[in-house]
């Protein structure tokens, strides 16, 4: 579940003066999007204009393509393939030399696998949802300008992963799984029933069962209890 944005920072009336950035919010929790909008979206004060919102991968790609924001605040765990799938499908927009769309991951997760996944996908930074409103606004403008932005403890994950051009995968077992299998794995480990997972990911129960079977086979595990212990040990829950 997404955590609420902490509002222990305020933005003064003049802070947004003279600068402007168009932003799309992508998160599957409507209340969280509403909270972020209230925190950063007072354009006259912050300089941030929220031009669109999306709750899943397909909506995100549609809204981003239509609005061409300068920065997208992107949750990592989304129905339809996750933040990595949004990045993959928006790669041409990121590569546009004249009007690039830049992505800043904003997630409750601080797992190394999540951080590295979206950075490899093309995101310019990664901050957690404990960030203050003031710091989030600052991060958005820094990403707009082309900087890379990370919550302090997450920067080490990126430095370790990209220390050399032939750096090994963060987790070879996880690399065997598809993005959808990883989503199912996390939800199973969090105690979701198959029907709940199907509803969350907009797929059938039979498809969920197929993904679980594939995950168990690839990880050489016997049941969902072993899978939960495996995921917990890797801080994926």
Automatic annotation (TrEMBL):
Regions annotated as coiled coil: none
UniProt domain Response regulatory: residue ranges: 22-144
InterPro entries: CheY-like_superfamily, NreC/VraR/RcsB-like_REC, Sig_transdc_resp-reg_C-effctor, Sig_transdc_resp-reg_receiver, Tscrpt_reg_LuxR_C, WalR-like
Residues bearing PTM 4-aspartylphosphate: 75
Pfam families (UniProt xref): GerE (PF00196), Response_reg (PF00072)
CDD domains, sorted: LuxR_C_like, REC_NarL-like
Keywords: DNA-binding, Phosphoprotein
Residues in HTH luxR-type domain copies: 170-235
Protein name: Response regulator transcription factor
Organism: Streptomyces edwardsiae
């Amino acid at each position: 579940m997404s955590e609420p944005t902490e509002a222990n920072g305020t933005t003064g009336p003049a802070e947004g003066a003279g600068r402007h950035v168009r932003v799309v919010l992508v998160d599957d929790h409507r209340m969280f999007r509403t909270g972020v909008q209230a925190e950063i979206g007072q354009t006259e004060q912050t300089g941030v204009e929220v031009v669109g919102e999306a709750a899943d991968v397909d909506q995100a790609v549609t809204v981003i393509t239509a609005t061409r924001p300068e920065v997208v605040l992107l949750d990592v765990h989304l129905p339809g393939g996750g933040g990595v799938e949004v990045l993959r499908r928006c790669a041409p927009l990121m590569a546009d030399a004249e009007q690039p769309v830049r992505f800043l991951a904003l997630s409750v997760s601080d797992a190394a696998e999540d951080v590295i996944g979206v950075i490899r996908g093309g995101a310019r930074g990664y901050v957690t949802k404990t960030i203050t409103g003031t710091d989030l606004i600052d991060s958005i403008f820094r990403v707009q300008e082309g900087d890379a932005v990370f919550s302090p403890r997450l920067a080490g994950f990126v430095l370790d992963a990209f220390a050399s051009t032939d750096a090994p995968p963060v987790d070879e077992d996880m690399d065997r799984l598809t993005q959808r299998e990883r989503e199912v794995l996390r939800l199973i480990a969090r105690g979701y029933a198959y029907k709940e997972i199907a509803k969350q990911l907009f797929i059938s129960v039979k498809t969920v069962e197929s993904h679980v079977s594939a995950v168990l086979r690839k990880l050489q595990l016997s049941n969902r209890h072993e899978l939960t212990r495996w995921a917990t040990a890797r801080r994926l829950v």
